[in-house]
């Protein structure tokens, strides 16, 4: 298994452009998480899905950010329009939710380094 | 409010010296605590979790509910331990959601 797959690995765009980040979770996992990493704020959870349904999007910074999970093997994080302050590394992670409220290890993708000029 | 605090951004030690990476948390219920590690050019990965009560790569961490701490310790640091370490918290009713600390960069010098 290749683990969690993210694309692109690097993205450079200009302010105002739309950016779409993609994630393929580990097959069989039923929870998917999007994180943003910056020097100032560290790792922040943006949104997470369970069985393809968004559960908590309280970390999404503003309406310019949106995330979808149309099926169990694919998720996107979109920024429209992008701004320089969105520059960060965006991580996707997946896990398998167990029974009785237990949660297993989150497996992280390699991240997408986004630079907005 | 739920929060994880790692007071040190950078910790530099010499090979063979003891290491302690500090982590304090704020949570009203019974949290589950984790340490994740990111080696250079590698993915963020789980190092250990408090419920396992195990030692991984010589590292241990004990949950101290009285002091709300979960410090990561290793008696003798190795150069290959150099990495970014993140402490994380999960609440029992939050669907596996993790709250991360700011991270501590550990540098082990020869």
Cα(first) to Cα(last) distance of chain A is 35 Å
Taking the sheet with the most strands of chain B, its summary is: 6 strands, mixed
* Low-confidence runs of at least 5 consecutive residues of chain B: none
Which spans of chain A have pLDDT < 50 for at least 5 consecutive residues?
none
Descriptive account of the structure:
The complex is a heterodimer of chains A (117) and B (110). Chain A is mostly beta strands and 117 residues long. In chain A, 0% of the residues lie in helices and 53% in strands. Chain A has strands spanning 5-7, 10-13, 19-24, 31-38, 42-50, 53-56, 65-71, 74-79, 88-95, 107-108, 112-116. In chain A, β7 (65-71) and β8 (74-79) form a beta hairpin. Chain B contains no helices and 11 strands. Chain B has strands at 3-5, 10-14, 19-21, 24-26, 32-38, 45-49, 60-61, 72-74, 83-90, 99-100, 104-109. Chain B is globular and about 45 Å long. The model of chain B has no long low-confidence stretch (mean pLDDT 90). The chains are: A mainly beta (117), B mainly beta (110). The interface between A and B is medium-sized, with 28 and 20 residues.
